[in-house]
Description:
Layout: H1 8-20, H2 31-40, H3 45-61, H4 67-70, H5 75-80, E1 83-88, E2 94-98, H6 105-109, H7 114-134, H8 136-139, E3 149-154, H9 161-164, H10 166-182, E4 187-193, H11 199-206, H12 212-215, E5 218-220, H13 225-235, E6 284-288, E7 293-300, E8 306-313, E9 318-326, E10 329-339, E11 346-351, E12 356-363, E13 372-381
Parallel strand pairs: 2-3, 3-4, 4-5
Antiparallel strand pairs: 1-2, 6-13, 7-12, 8-11, 8-13, 9-10, 9-12
Amino acid sequence: MDLSQLNDDQRATLKQFREAVKDCKLPDSDDVYLLRWLVARDFDLAKSEKMLRNSMEWRQKNRIDTIIEDWKAPEVLTKYCAVGHTSADKYKSYTVVVRYGAMDLKGLLLSVKKKGYLTHVTKIVEQCIVEARNNPARFTSSPTTISQAALILDMAGFSMRHITYKPALDTAMQMLQMNEANYPEFLRRVFVINAPKIFSILYSLAKPFMHEKTRNKVQIYSHDADQWKAALLEDFDPQELPACFGGTLTDPDGNPNCITMVNMGGEVPKSYYLMSKPDTTNKNCVSVSNGSKEQLEFQVTQTGFILKWDFHSEEGDIAFAIYRKGDGQMIPVVPHERVDCHVSPEEGEICCDYAGVYIVEFDNSFSYFRSKKIWYSISIQSAKPDGYQNGSRQ
């Protein structure tokens, strides 16, 4: 949408929206950025404000504003996560290509934690936005138009292994929810090509997490290359479309797959896999039944003490959080988040700014069928070397 297309009521709503969120630290403060949130929620001021504030909280929690400088992707992601940028379409949309069917998602998620994979994808999205902002002549129709991206999702090679490995499926759904909540109107068009019949299973699982506006942008094509190439060439000039998709764009050496822009994925070597059997020495064990949670209490006697944790699971991921009891309520200290502690141990520490009771929570309420066995070591120690207090658990 273009700012020039707004009617008087929409302009008034935009003005109200700017006033309502003036306290927010926005990554981009111009009217075009604010327009994204209004369009995503059909100019409902309350819903748009709630969506934006939730996203700003997410950005702060995950340090999104510095993710491009701070996040250094593990080698396995740069080599085997087949996501990249190629060109621009006729509408000056930034073009993202994902060879989803060619990726060994199970191998990737056995080599990095889900959070690392999601951080990698988020960084790619942020890089798209920055490059589009820095190259408006190439990636923006006009200064008053929302800049968007065209996504080519190549499903060649997609099989039941992409659906039956639950961590990969969970990650795909979480990534979809993350993008829907934090990057409104980012997509102009989604081309799903080489989709086998079983893709309908994945799409039916994904649809509930997609806003109607997003669903309306999705075009799905089977293995009929003539059909999807023709559809792509309606939106792309040949020189802007990889030759493997029907255009003329190639790598400098003539490779039609443009692998210098988007790698080919492939099976992840097991040498990248993280440790599968962590050490249980000096660790306690707690079983968390399906649909339930376990809470462990720790008394911190002085401010400035350090609470450290090291835990892993044998059966799957678990949601982890730390709270402090205060004023008759549970005050979050470490935000509630699902962690892939079955892939590798989860370790961390916090400085206890208050004395009192701290609660470490292992939450399995999201799992309807599977209980989880958690091996953990939790200690409380002074900031001074070798200074432990009573009540530490190992």
